[in-house]
Input
Amino acid sequence: MELDRYSPKEQQRIADLMRLLPRGRRNVLEIGARDGYFSVLLLEHFQQVTALDLETPRIDHPGITPVRGDATSLQFGDGSFDVVLCSEVLEHIPEPGLGRAAAELQRVARCEVVVGVPYRQDLRVGRTRCAHCGRRNPPWGHVNRFDRRRLRRLFDRCRVVEESLVGSGVERTNFLSDWLMNLAGDPYGVYEQQEPCIHCGFPLVRPAPPKSWRRLAAKAGARLVQLQSRLARPRPIWLHAVLAKRDCPAG
Output
């Protein structure tokens, strides 16, 4: 799930979002803009782009307004933007904030909300262990798992215009493998992620290689995952959706 923008999978994800963007709209709010990579691409279809993140994005580009904000409490009026784009964000917001964020996106959108989330992600794969507080973390700080039904329930003020399943992967595990990894201290988790511990906020640091019986437990858990991956059917990695306000005017 790491945002390696030049990998084939990430390029496929970006291309699909660009394909889904509504045409004929003037301005767009991008939630989770980070460094503005996608914000610049949005200028191909919109005259004005507002790039929002928890910290003000460092973007200096004509047509793009960087702002600091929180998706669960947006400081904009109702219908301020023709389109709201929110990709790779909702999976990070725990309840009850997730419901508030969905309500806020629908409130500030005049026409459409475009959403991208991981599809049926197995949140046990790649778990990490915080060296500071000792608690386990889901991969990439993802605390939510999505499918079509959950996304539609969240955005109940909109109608679905189009949905798209993107990518292909077999990343999943099982109870026994996850139990073994927990015993071993989760040494093979995705510690290269930028997201800190979801419990205490400290950066995640890869632990030293396990020793003695913990090393055996980790190897056994990893082997089980490899075997399962060989037998598992590939499934999509991302779910993208275009959701239109019910009173949305035609573009």
